Amino acid sequence: MAEMISPKERMKREQISMPEQKPKERIFNFKEVPLGYTREQAIYEAQRCLQCKNAKCITGCPAEINIPQFIKKIVEEDFSGAYNEILKTDALPAITGRVCPQEEQCQMYCVLEKQGKPIAIGRLERFVADWARINNVHGELPEIEKKTKKVGIVGSGPAGLTCAADLARIGYEVTIFEALHLLGGVLVYGIPEFRLPKDIVKYEVDEIEKQGVKIITDYVVGATKSVDKLAEEFDALFLANGAGAPRFMNIPGENLNDVYSANEFLTRSNLMKAYDFPKYDTPIKIGKRAATIGAGNVAMDSARTALRLGAEKSYIIYRRSRKEVPARIEEVHHAEEEGIIFNFLTLPIKVLGDKNGNVIGMVCQKMKLGEPDDSGRRRPIPIEDSEFTIEIDMVIDAIGTSANPILARSATGVDTNRWGYFIAKDTTGATTREGIFAGGDIVRGSATVISAVGDGKVAARAIDQYLSSGKSLKNK
User: Do residues 284 and 182 share a domain?
Assistant: First the structure.
């Protein structure tokens, strides 16, 4: 067991940095960039935790993990106990430990954040989950009494997987319907291998399947079978099909060759393994100068992927300033280390093409920031006579996604808002049709993995309440 250290000593220690691949090496491969803590590093970092009695960090965790408790078990070198503590509320710890924006959630509430050195909660969570996988340690499942009610879940992204795991643990017969051939949703088609390896996702999906969750792939709800038909077969449904339809800027030239949506670009690279062509059958054409429009995590993923696939220069074009960038600080830092070129306060207004319809450039306009808009960020305002041209031969639109209407058209009585997202109650996930719940990006729009995990947990509790009590949870 690791030695106990005094609170004074804990306060002195700096946060342990995570080892990473060097930038000049990693831009030529798709291996994971952060390498994870060693055993010694994890224990050292865990010893920093003050074990607060009123732990505010828990309130900042959508997965509801008892953070001090699992960290305490790391200090005690009871890594199996730490893993099982996390699994009580989070079925995807190796995933959330990697891609959750802890700096904006649990770590923001850490007492040590006031000194600028919060406990590296996400890194510790990742260490525990990776240790369990490497050492073939599995979660201790409680004995449950099987229930007779059946729940159908549409989509196997973080919301669907979490809801399925939580319901299976309390005895429900759960079936997941996935449109693609692999499970994971955005975890496998949207997030690159260098940020979230596919074998990590597969492992955690397999662990959920071991709990008795039935999985059906290549099944497009809304086309293969309607929501209305599924509702006849299940006692409750959870719609977690994501927001996978691409969004474009609708500027001249976006119909030229070599203009991608981030959805298509990342799906080809991630799910279809275009990065390993010709071993895999799906090629992807990469320009020498790639411009990615947007500055969220998806934009960082796209720009960094283009670089690894052979682009000599990879640009981020963003209409606001660096301060307003929505991507994680860590992702922006990694992008800059790798040589991604950031063009802030810049708005694309036209994509230029040659006589063959190929991209050769982009006309942009300089911007300035005005008063805050509805998002709370300062509104970008065009500067007159500030147009200029960037020489590029590839464009990736990463400005967000929208709801695919196929599923919604087959769901009678499930209301959507003006953007096509399902209307669901925050506290239950209940939609406007009794017995049908929804969560994740199909309700929120493009959001974080951990917020989808939180939605899955909320919906699982509400579904259990609905099926146990027989009372309506309709979102009136």
Answer: no
